[in-house]
Every structure is written in structure tokens, then in C-alpha cells.
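Listing S7. Sequence submitted for prediction.
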Amino acid sequence: MSRSTTKFIMAITITAFIALAGCAQKETLDARAIPGGKDFTPERIVERVFTAIQTGELTGIDAYFSAEITPGLVEEFVKNINSSMKIDKYKALPVSSDAKNAEVKILYRFIPKVDGAFARRTKKQVSEKIFKLVKEDDIWRVRKTGFKDFDQKVESRIFMSCLESVMDAAIAEEKTRQMRGEYAASVAALLKVMPDLNEMTCEELNIEMTGESSYLITAKTLNSDPCLIVANTDSYAPKSYLECPSFNMDSIPQTGKNKDTGSEG
């Protein structure tokens, strides 16, 4: 094989690799794209969700939901609706909207299922839900559905993702102390010890030193109603999203400080 032919083949191969890489990147970028979605009103997004559930055309339904809601949860949401009812007619109506948030009321008629089947002469019923949407990538996406069980699972998952990052930060602190003889005073320092620490699962993740041998990790979750998670060398709280409303900072032992004076003990 001549040198010119070899160079020609190599050039084609490299071009092909670049093209494939470009396609893979485009596929990733377009994974949550909705054709014409930037022009869709919040009501249209909600109606598209109901259309997908009604017709069974579920390809791409994940894109109508916030990135905070995993595809697995969306699949479970659709499955639960289909196992309990058959959706008939529906209409979405605007409730409120600003630059980043919107509320939509969906009125829908349905035939209920009993034990997964339709009873004889089952009458159609009417119900309504309030959907809450957020703007992500200039497209309205569903954040809450008004279906209580589903929304609670979403909030619990979001809370646990942040809590896992807090626990990772605590583990990184102990590793740092073993390596350097002292705790780290910042998330940036922890990332040197644990590069896969994902602080993006929380809205905020901060560390402060509360003494020579203690630290305090505070994190604000990405929940619709944000929750404060606190951890130190002794404990952490709250342990679940359901505990958030009643959580009090005083439930965390203040290691290294006198709780009454704030001075080191």
C-alpha cells in the first residue's frame, strides 16, 4: 500500500471518528430537547404530558419534566396513573406565571379502575390537579404534579441526593484529617481528597471550622421547599425529607463549642 493511500485512509478514519463524536455530543445535548418547546406555554406542556399518557406514546416524555425528576420516577408516575384510571378528556388552564415559575390547573375526566380493571357500567369522573412548572433551558418543565405520592417521592429523592453529598463531605473530612492531621475548611479542599464529591446535588454546600478539631457542614437542598441539612463530627440531621419541617439546629451537638456562649470549650 502506498504512503499516499495510507494517509488517505487515516484521514477518512479520523474524519469518521470526529463525526461520530459530534453525533454523540449532539445526542447528549438534544436528550432533553423539545422541538419548538421554547414557544410552548406551561398549559401546553401539561397537556402534552396527558396526551402522552392517554395515547401511550411515551417516547421523550422525560423532557417535559424537570431535570430533578429522574426518568425512573417519570416511568413510575405514568404506570401509577394507567393502573388506576383511563384518562378521557382534559383541559389545562393557566393559574399563575412569572419568569421562572408557573402553575397550571388541569381538569380531566377519567374512568377509574378497580384492581386494575374497569368495573361494569363505571361512570366517568372528573378531577383536577395543580401542576407546578419551572423554566429550564428556556423551556417550561413539570416540577410538581399535584399527585401527592409521586411528588413526595420526588422530594425525598432530591433530599437524599443532597444528604449523600453531605455524607461524602463528612467522609472526605475524616480522610483529610488522617492525611494532614487537620480538617479541611472548604469544599474546594475536600475535592482534592474526594474528586467525585458532587456538591451540585445541593443548592448550597458549605463548611466552617467550629474549633481546632471540629467542623460544621451545612447544605441547602434543591427541594421545592428547601431543607437545611447539618452535619459535624458527631451527627447529622435531618435524616429524611419528612423530618425537615420539624428540624431544629439545636438537635445537632455543637462539637468544639459551648452552645450557650459560642466559645470553644
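Caption to Listing S7: primary sequence and predicted C-alpha cells for the chain studied. DSSP finds five helices and eight strands in the chain. The chain has two domains: 37-146, 160-251.
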